[in-house]
Fold this sequence. Notes:
The protein has helices at 2-22, 53-58, 119-123, and strands at 70-78, 81-88, 94-100, 104-106, 112-115, 133-139, 142-149, 159-160. By secondary structure, it is an alpha+beta fold. A hairpin with a 5-residue loop joins strand 2 (81-88) and strand 3 (94-100).
Amino acid sequence: MSKYFLYILALCWLPGLLASESLDFDNFLVDTILDQKVPVIDISSHPKGEVFKEQLQSATGNTMNYGGQYYMLQTGCGTMCQVFLAVDITSGKLVGMEDSNLGGCFQENSKLLILNPFLSTYFEGHIPEWAYTYYYEITENGFSLLSKTKKSFTGLCKFGQ
């Protein structure tokens, strides 16, 4: 009977362990990294583009810093509030927008975006009910949520945070 219990326990525990280990920048690498500057951004390409018009206009001319073909702009939106805006440098379109309470991590060679990556360092082990670490993948249609967890990211944060 104890072998059966251990088998059931392993079936429940193993997928979560494997999923958290697979959410690393190296598992979302891009094939190509473009060496282009951000063109004039099409503010109308996103419903909330007008809200961040000034910040987006200031990004024109910067180089790609995320996901091989995107420029990731971080801007504040109040206390414990940051917005991450992804601009496609090939089209000038604002393709994704996500908000964070405690920063984020991203890399120029990976499609992964991690928001609120280091929860435990802010809350001394007592993470509030509302706080999660979010993992997103950028696509041509915006960000796709991969996972949300109470566990902090254990890797290195190259950009952001």
